[in-house]
What we know:
By secondary structure, the chain is mostly helical. The protein is built from 16 helices and no strands.
Amino acid sequence: xxxxxxxxxxxxxxxxxxxxxxxxxxLVFYGIVLTQPIASVPLxxxxxxLSNGHYVTTLLLxxxxxxxxxxxxxxxxxxxxxxGSAYTYVGKGLNAYLGFLVGWAVLLDYGVTPLVNGxxxxxxxxxxxLPQVPFVVGMFLVILIMVAPNLRGIKTSALxxxxxxxxxxxxxxxxxxxxxxxxxxHQSWSGLFSTQPFYNPxxxxxxxxxxxxxxxxxxxxxxxGVTTLSEDAHNPKRNVLLAIVLVCLFTGVFGGxxxxxxxxxxxDWQTLPNLETAFMDVCARVGGPGLFHAMGxxxxxxxxxxxxxxxxxxxxxxFGMGRDNVLPRRxxxxxxxxxxxxxxxxxxxxxxVFVGAIALAHVGNAFEHAGELQNYGAFxxxxxxxxxxxxxxxxxxxxxxxxxxxxxxxxSLFGAVFCGIMWWNLxxxxxxxxxxxxxxxxxxxxxATRGFTVRPRMIxxxxxx
Length: 465
């Protein structure tokens, strides 16, 4: 444990560094794949029920605090352009001990992301396409698909992101075209333009819309993963902030547009045959069985892309913690000489995802439990990054203009309160399992800092070139 205890934040000349090879649009593509361009599609039926037919409204309401959180992440990335993301921002910008716990929570979030995606893909492959292949074998193949591009290096992973993004967007664009044609042919212009998806006085209720808004926030999860590539990006002080805000905006606007068309095509959610596959039924109404299966394949690709990006984000976070000796440096800060890739971390995450999927499959409800855990880690990180941004812009780095200081810090504080409320009201299963994970992290931190008597090291700020 001695190597964990140094307080100096400086980085020695021989410390491993990532190469800056990613452009602004590489970051945007990565973030969109991680959040998934059709993220609003799987939630469509359940969100329609929770909101009494106001899914579009809940998506737009959820976008406000998520944009604030994205802005907080981007501003903190400009101050600390390192690979540790929320771990660094909270640890260096607020409190080192809390920063470690945020990193521990983000590790849970990022580690669960490919688990959620991988389990869903493996289940679909086994149930619909390859029933003769056991779930264990299917899960192993899915892990290989997610791990292999990341092992080849960051540029290969970025290229994979673009290919996956193009495939997912293609089916979504086909749906948009067919839905517009369907609505115009059946209802003319009144079918295309309506305020009903935003506000229907017969079914609107503040409480139901609020409940559904907390559910719709799931659409945006993953945008913060862009900050884990700060050390891979050109001009991170500018590009990371722009990328993370653009990703959040795209997710809300594009996802909201898909939900709007879905609501206009099938306005009465109570007649949907199945809430979980509701949007596929909408696709069948405008494009027949072909579009129904194409959208299913699109979701399959989205989950593979999300899992691929999730493994990369988790590996980058482990690299940041390992380089700083918070985790054993020899393993977690290792970079492959040829590709500057944290290969050990990628393999570790892949192995954890595989073992976790098999274990949860034996328990049952693997997909549901993994999703609840993802929310737990994400909301805790969002809350504390907003708090760190509030502290920095209110007290440490206030703007010369008092009005600008109030706006910057006030927005961050609002984001922290909103995310804190969401985190506190999560499902009991997520709170119990997440609490156990936190106790493990606190125990490790106590040992590493001799009973919290030594300040843990945090990832250095790095350069901004």
